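hi support,

uploading two proteins for the ticket. first:
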Amino acid sequence: LEAKLRNAFTGRPDGEIYAVVGDEGVGKSSLVVSTWLACNAASILIMSPAEDLLAPEATGDFESFLIDKLIKQTGRQRSERASERWRRRIKGWRANPAPKNVRLTMVFDGLNQPLKADWSRWLDHAASELAKMGGCLVITTRSTQLTHLLHAIASKNANVPVSPPTLLTGKSRH
């Protein structure tokens, strides 16, 4: 599974949206983080709960939303100076949108409720904007939401199914 997800963090992505799909508690979020940690030359990783898509700032300008996330995740205070620093960096990324390795990966974790129409448009828009910067979008969702998700988004996607871990039966392997 890590091999399938690796291109969301390093190298060239296989899709604009990676959907990490599985039942509750199977380790979707853990797979995302462990895969990112295992990558050499990994992208900048932004983890965000899916509820952030409902926040008023998510419905505005995507670049401002992204900059707010980057500032918050780096532990800085929101200021015009910090925002301008990220704006310059994003402008540079857009000038070279096809880097050898993914620059930035945004993860929305726990997209488990039925998608609202604006969520699908927002996800497509976010995936498109990230691709223009050499970035990628990853979502985690339950298996029950996959069909609805695939019908709702227009972006090219790569699905990463996560199964429950195999339990040891106590039988020896002789």
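and the second one:
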Amino acid sequence: RRGSARGRRRARSGSSRRGSRCLAGDVRHRGPHHEPAVAIVARIEPAARGGDPLAHPDQAVAATVLVNLARLYERTGDYTLATTHAQQGADLASQSGDETTLARGLNTLGSIAHTQGQQELARDYYEHSLTLRRASGDLRGVAASLNNVGLLLFDQGNYVEAQRYLEQSLTIRR
């Protein structure tokens, strides 16, 4: 059962064994933001362990890194740190007006709640993320959020509604 939950998390996150992700983004595609993100991670991570994790002057970048750290902690099974970082990242993204990162942070919080069996909380986070992604026109994000809600509904045994969400996700991805 543990392996299947891990597989569902991987399916929800879009991660695969073909290319691993790092805190600075997808390591298969080291774009222009890779090195600055690595530097920010080096600065934020020690602060997150006992200082001010929001010390970086560029709040949008700090929010992104915090959400990425949350995803890392989620994948390693440290849900306390994952939740802390995702909430801090979402809060900072909200304050800085970065709705894309806010949606990612909410989606990550939903994934953490889903993994921990907090289905109603997960649904709330997923739906809020979906609303933001629809409003911004982020089709890839909309498809991911629809998929996550569909997987949650599937886990709840609501197969008809799960199918509706999953088919919407598939339609967008095609």
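thanks. also noticed: The mean pLDDT is 79.
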